[in-house]
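Q: Give me the 3D complex with guanosine-5'-monophosphate.
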Amino acid sequence: RLELIEALRTGIRDDLVVHYQPVVNLDTGRIGGVEALVRWRRDGALVPPDLFIPAAEDSGLIVPLGQRVLQQVVADSPQLVRAAGGPIDLAVNMSAHQLHDPTFVPAVRAAVEAFGDSRLVLEMTETVLVQDDPHTATTLERLTGAGARLSIDDFGVGFSSIGYLQHLPVDVVKIDRSFVRDIDHLPRSRALVDAILVMASALDLDVVAEGIERESQADVLRMAGCSDGQGYLYARPQPLAEVLATLRDQS
Ligand code: G
Ligand code: G
Ligand code: MN
Ligand code: NA
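A: Here is the predicted complex, encoded as structure tokens.
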């Protein structure tokens, strides 16, 4: 573990790679945005984030790592927007620790400016939002005030209340893939997704369904009124060159 952390510490600057997974409109199939997902190039292999993000969180390295990922997305954004042929949503995952980094809000403000008409989406899990302290609320308001959109990742699986939706500036919920997995054959999954969609609509939140792998899942989501989705059915997370080609193909 210590060895992993030391290797990651020295690798943050040059050895992180950002892949992008398209988010599509379920009615038209068009790509409206991409989510940045980090990988770590180590000894010639690409290490997936679930093998190093937890250690990065515990060690505090998630702060420089998050800065590095946002910096890469800003660098890649002109090409992504040009390939899309118009404004798109660019989503970045963020950790709770980044809310306490004084450089985070200014970095987000700079990214929003660099993106122009394209939107910066900050994805965070419910664990960020249930920290019921004034600093969290103030910082989230500064982020949305700067023009970023806030998106709840893995919505519905945190051991949390949804009370934060009453007062925090949330724009998007991403329905966790555990609900999507069985939606085409389990009535209970379908009922839960219906309930999330009703709630999102009443609160004027956008919705993205995660982990769509089969056309039958997309069919049910579309019929339920879910506007957007993400998953292997449409595209896996792809290296920059590949996602640029995917975007050009449809523009
Ligand atoms: O790409 P993959 O599906 O393996 O991602 C696994 C997990 O790692 C997801 O929960 C995702 O949110 C998280 N993750 C990916 N990239 C980043 C990142 O840049 N920052 C943070 N904090 N988490 C990330
Ligand atoms: O927690 P977050 O939603 O940020 O995690 C994104 C993760 O989900 C990435 O690791 C990505 O590889 C994975 N992912 C994306 N689409 C699918 C899918 O259709 N099925 C499965 N099983 N995983 C997916
Ligand atoms: Mn995410
Ligand atoms: Na998720």
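A quick observation: The chain is about 45% helix and 20% strand.
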